[in-house]
What we know:
The complex is a heterotrimer, with two copies of chain A and one copy of chain C.
Chain A: H1 10-22, H2 29-35, H3 42-53, E1 58-63, E2 66-71, H4 73-79, E3 81-84, E4 87-88, H5 91-103, E5 106-107, H6 108-115, H7 121-129, E6 133-138, E7 146-150, H8 152-157, H9 169-172
Antiparallel strand pairs in A: 1-2, 5-7, 6-7
Chain C: H1 13-21, H2 26-36, H3 46-63, H4 69-85, H5 92-123, E1 141-144, E2 148-149, H6 152-169, H7 182-193, E3 200-201, H8 213-232, E4 236-240, E5 247-251
Antiparallel strand pairs in C: 3-5, 4-5
Helix pairs in contact in C: 1-3, 2-3, 2-5, 3-4, 4-5, 7-8
Amino acid sequence: MTSEPAMPDPEQLRLAEALIFASATPVTARALTQALPDGAEAEAVLAALQARYAGRGVELVEVAGGWQFRTAPDIAERLKRVVKVPRRLPRAAMETLAIIAYHQPVTRAEVEEIRGATLSQTTLDALLDAGLIMPKGRRETPGRPTMWGTTPAFLAQFGLADLRDLPRREDLLVETPTPTVEAPATLPEPEAPDA
Amino acid sequence: MTSEPAMPDPEQLRLAEALIFASATPVTARALTQALPDGAEAEAVLAALQARYAGRGVELVEVAGGWQFRTAPDIAERLKRVVKVPRRLPRAAMETLAIIAYHQPVTRAEVEEIRGATLSQTTLDALLDAGLIMPKGRRETPGRPTMWGTTPAFLAQFGLADLRDLPRREDLLVETPTPTVEAPATLPEPEAPDA
Amino acid sequence: MAAVAANDAPLGAEALLLHLDGFDGPLDLLLDLARAQKVDLARISILALVDQYLAVIEGARRIRLELAADWLVMAAWLTWLKSRLLLPLGLTAADEGEAAAEVLAARLRDLQAMRAAAAWLGARPQLGQEVFARGAPEDFAETDRSGLSLDMPALMRAYMAALRRGTRHKQYRPARISLWGVKDALARLAVLLGSLPDWSALDQFLPETLGGPLERRAALASTLIASLEMARSGTIRMRQEAAFGPILVRGQLSEAQDEPDDE
């Protein structure tokens, strides 16, 4: 045995390469030794293999006590792609949004009246955070409750040019229930964001 | 552009190498083209990459409509000693698979007719579990029997780029192969464009 | 797999049975017998094949009578085929035999081809058997769940659901149908007639606030009945100039001025 690292047998290199490639977990030097023919030096084989892959798209790295092929970090960065998985709004939020869209400007109490359910702060916050609704002044009644309306972002999200593009309420409801809160007789006036 | 294949940019080679290496399934030339910078020639990059890996422990092969790195077939025996390998398909399953591959879409009754034997549930289940076959609609005859065909996983498992890679039926009959003798495992030779 | 190359040597009865069990049915056995003829499948002798098959089945039956039905069905069919094949050429029955023999040969070639295909597939290095893909694939995809998935149909469904629930929660009160009854009409006529000294059309005594046509007709009918009632008791007088003409009423107070023109 010489002290300088001898170039390992190419067949050993091939076997190590295939084994590490096919393994689902990092391959320990010990496991590699068992796979290699007797007398082979796993360390030398690994070093040679690492040198062979140096600077390539895939590199041999030591992780978690074993060896594994990993994409070179700079390439991994370039291959990274963002997959957008849009969330759906919870049902309560969607219903609240729809009511605000059709009845704006509308107070929280009115939304609750129409939905027949209380409107939680979480739901309101979710719509505010999503930029879909905004305050539209206060109603001049006792308590001066905040009125809510939709934002231009709401229109953009639904691909509407204008609030008037919402389907008419009459076209939606076969039997028109009569909500106690007065809905605008016609359609809500379009917002003029830059008026 | 010269007619002789120019050596692709090393960075493109790194990127392609990493992309195909990382993927769990074969990478199509189209997907590669999208990942490469504009103007890069996927075919040339693939050819260069294949040449680089020729004779190594891991090889680049064209399967199931894409490209995939796989361990070299000749080290199968040595790898099997350390890598856990599932059971091979029994003869009845292999024959059924061959019949489905060649006659698809084909009904169970037709498979039975060709084999002159009933097709057991075990066999059908084994092929389905392995993801090698799938239903391909129903035949518009009385009873509307399900028709079967092979999956992309079938191509991947047997290292076929395409169903057209199956030998022609006429060629199968020319020299009578002896089914009981295991033929030596041979992969299609990697093309070495500048060998 | 005990099937191959067992046909050249004469078989003992026991071996024969084992042998049969090794086949996947009669066609499988026939193909094996045909292959034993060591000629191209296109040129096998169907007649010789039939004889060999029948000999095997006969041998097997001697020791096991309950041989599976499909072996016997095939034997019966082959016996029929043999009888046709032995007929002199030119007879219709002989032609039938030739055609049937050709079908059988084609089926054997078919099965043979599929056998070969299975062998070809089996000889290929299989993924997960001889060759292996990357054991630890990497995924560079990062999911971004910050976006919202909103669409009009969902908004509409939500709106309708909200309205339905909203109305369901309210107490149901059937709309009050208030029809002008005879009692009401009697009271109204009694009050009004005093202030109307002259003949007046009956519909002038209808209440001012009437909903729809239904309410109007109901009020008119009630008022007519009320006025007839009052006329009968002599409180008022009524008259009608022409059929379907306006019905006129007036109070009895001014009876001095007028002729009685009942009805």
